[in-house]
Design goal:
mainly beta; eight-stranded antiparallel beta barrel
Length: about 200
């Protein structure tokens, strides 16, 4: 519950920051990563562009599906923040074109298929991202991005689920701390941008 509260506060901080800087020209966007959606992991992104060329993104994912008969489960919770630099001016093309960023995420997961699973109760990662946001319409974007960085998983467990006398047990194959450097994120996100602060007619490109 402590981790859940932390991630919720991170997302609320991103959304709430829009009110603090509302005196500046600001754009607010919400979106979802379709790559997570297709594997039934609900997720939400919230982004605030608070200065020319710069924005901050908060994201969270949560899934808690389980099928004990088939020994399948998808249990995941994660959240994080990402600071971004956009090569296009926000005054000309809000949240469009090329961008680079730096991110930090926290999470925990338990993923099992047909009795074989991978579990980590405390994982974090940090790294850099590159992406491109395609303009679909005035207020809609299709954002594609990848991330490269370092991931650390404490209490990582590769296990088998077995049934004994009608009861199910987890038998560990390998238990250790996970260290990974390489690709850490991939996103194909649909993003909606309602105009946060109204300026002159035609400001929203």
């Amino acid at each position: 519950m402590k981790l859940i509260r932390t991630w919720a506060l991170l997302i609320l901080a991103v959304i709430g920051s829009a009110n603090v800087i509302a005196q500046n020209k600001t754009y607010f966007a919400i979106g979802t990563n379709a790559l997570y959606d297709v594997v039934t992991i609900p997720n939400l992104e919230a982004e605030v562009a608070f200065a020319d060329h710069r924005s901050i993104l908060g994201e969270c994912s949560f899934a808690w599906w389980q099928n004990k008969d088939k020994m399948d489960c998808s249990q995941l919770i994660s959240g994080g923040l990402e600071g971004r630099y956009w090569f296009s001016s926000l005054n000309e093309a809000p949240l469009s074109g090329h961008f680079v960023g730096a991110f930090a995420n926290l999470g925990a997961y338990d993923l099992e298929r047909k009795g074989e699973g991978y579990q980590c109760r405390n994982a974090w990662m940090t790294g850099i991202t590159y992406g491109y946001s395609f303009r679909l319409s005035q207020s809609w974007r299709l954002e594609c991005s990848v991330g490269l960085g370092y991931m650390r998983g404490n209490k990582y467990d590769h296990y088998d689920e077995i049934e004994v006398n009608g009861k199910q047990y987890l038998m560990s194959r390998d238990r250790a701390n996970l260290n990974w450097f390489g690709p850490t994120k991939a996103k194909v996100s649909f993003v909606w941008i309602p105009q946060l602060t109204k300026g002159k007619k035609g400001d929203m490109q």
